[in-house]
């Protein structure tokens, strides 16, 4: 039981860190698009046509 509780704590921590990394990654993309004004975000988009 103690191991399951500890494992749950690590699982929650990993999820929280993952969500923060995803959010920071999205903010970095928007920063490059609107502040730096380079084509980093456009290069990640799929090609049209």
From TrEMBL:
Spans through the membrane: 17-36
Domain spans labelled Cytochrome b561 bacterial/Ni-hydrogenase: 2-46
Membrane topology designation: Multi-pass membrane protein
GO biological process: respiratory electron transport chain
InterPro entries: Cyt_b561_bac/Ni-Hgenase (IPR011577), Di-haem_cyt_TM (IPR016174)
Species assigned in the record: Pseudomonas palleroniana
Key words, A-Z: Cell membrane, Membrane, Transmembrane, Transmembrane helix
Identification of the protein by name: Cytochrome B
Coiled-coil boundaries: none
Location of this chain's protein in the cell: Cell membrane
Main location class: membrane
A GO molecular-function descriptor: electron transfer activity
